[in-house]
Amino acid sequence: MKRLVILGSGESGVGTALLAVQKGWTVFVSDKASITQKHKTELINAGIEFEDNKHSEDKILLADEIMKSPGIPDDIPLILKAKGKGIPVISEIEFAGRYMDCKSICITGSNGKTTTTLLIYDLLKNAGINVELAGNVGTSLARQLAEGRKPDWFVIELSSFQLDGMFDFRADVAVLLNITPDHLDRYGFKMQNYIESKFRIAQNQTEEDVFIYCEDDENIVNELVHHIYKSNLIPFTQKDILKSGAYVTNDEVIINYNQDTMSILSQELSLQGKHNLYNSMAAGIVASVLKIKKKFIRESLTSFKGVEHRLEKVCSVRGIEFINDSKATNVNSTWYALECMDKPVVWIAGGVDKGNDYEDLLPLARKKVKALICLGTDNSKLINSFGKEVQVIKEARSMKEAVELAYQQGKKGDVVLLSPACASFDLFSSYIDRGNQFKDTVRDL
């Protein structure tokens, strides 16, 4: 009996453990942190051996294969030792994919992947397709397979960390939205390493498959010439007119696939802003590939409600609008958020810097930001970067303090925008915790 060791006991780890034991593997789960009581109960009930608050190297290195949590870097000594012994180290998507007998739509990108994933899922569901949601959002793919779910399609959001451990898995439809600097601390601060990680979304594709990508993204276009794909490549753009793909002209979004064309007025799309135009085009192409009726495509693209913590309007207080963009954990996400703003901005930013270069934000900050509230344990880089661009800069060490400072700086007709451009882990447990604290504090004003 083959032995699978799982490092990490989150949703993907426990889901993989439950699936693996069903498929006849001997399973051992190891977590350097505490395992939640809920997950401990699941593991005990399934007869799965586990440990927490440590990694027992002697037990782990007995593995035939290791599935590690996306949060665990590839270069820690334990992983390097395992690879040195020839033990394959894979991701949940790679393991679960072996037991999946339906088709998949896989979405990645530095920004917009959650919005696009949920939009595609909503579109398919509205059209009556038997579909489930997995990956970075919702329930893990492995757990759903363990529970016996058998949809016709899985819509799967994939981060670069999940893609790094993907080797044989094949996406029937792959969507690559954009590639901008993010998580460079995990890629040796080399952009090329990160680009190559994102391009794994389309590996193993055949002539029957589809690869949808943004033609306006320089990193994608420059990297594409180094790859030969058998799959059908379909671009989307806001700059050109395409024979096949999606583009914008005369305030309309045109989607043309297999000589079947449809159009939607840009102003009718439920998701507004330049970045969301890309997300809607990508989703529209996916729907066209799946031969979904135009009326369902139009209904979803014009009624979709959006994603919590991404340009989420919270409320207005005395004429000041508060927007929660906590999901903006990198510079490019925040660029899109600032680019969308048409009112004077009091901007709350900061957190764990992932090797950020703020240069692209300087023109927008100069033009739109009246005050910057730095929310983090170390705000020096933000202050040094924007000190000459923004007249008022304040520091905060809690969400309550940040919101109160922002409220003091704002006036009727302004917007307070939480768009951190950084990870959350210095002061918050996650971007969700950060966004929820923001919303709760705003409502208490």
From TrEMBL:
Family matches, as InterPro entries: Mur-like_cat_sf, Mur_ligase_C, Mur_ligase_C_dom_sf, Mur_ligase_cen, MurD
Keyword terms, alphabetized: ATP-binding, Cell cycle, Cell division, Cell shape, Cell wall biogenesis/degradation, Cytoplasm, Ligase, Nucleotide-binding, Peptidoglycan synthesis
Enzyme class: ligase
Key word Lyase present: no
Catalysed reactions, semicolon-separated: UDP-N-acetyl-alpha-D-muramoyl-L-alanine + D-glutamate + ATP = UDP-N-acetyl-alpha-D-muramoyl-L-alanyl-D-glutamate + ADP + phosphate + H(+)
Binding residues annotated for ATP, in chain numbering: 109-115
Principal location: cytoplasm
Residues in Mur ligase central domain copies: 107-286
Key word Calcium present: no
Pathway as given in its UniProt record: Cell wall biogenesis; peptidoglycan biosynthesis
Ranges where the Mur ligase C-terminal domain occurs: 309-422
Domain of life: Bacteria
One Gene Ontology molecular-function label: UDP-N-acetylmuramoylalanine-D-glutamate ligase activity
Subcellular location: Cytoplasm
EC number: 6.3.2.9
Function: Cell wall formation. Catalyzes the addition of glutamate to the nucleotide precursor UDP-N-acetylmuramoyl-L-alanine (UMA).
PANTHER family per record: UDP-N-ACETYLMURAMOYLALANINE--D-GLUTAMATE LIGASE
Similarity comment: family membership: Belongs to the MurCDEF family.
The protein, known as: UDP-N-acetylmuramoylalanine--D-glutamate ligase
Organism (species): Carboxylicivirga linearis
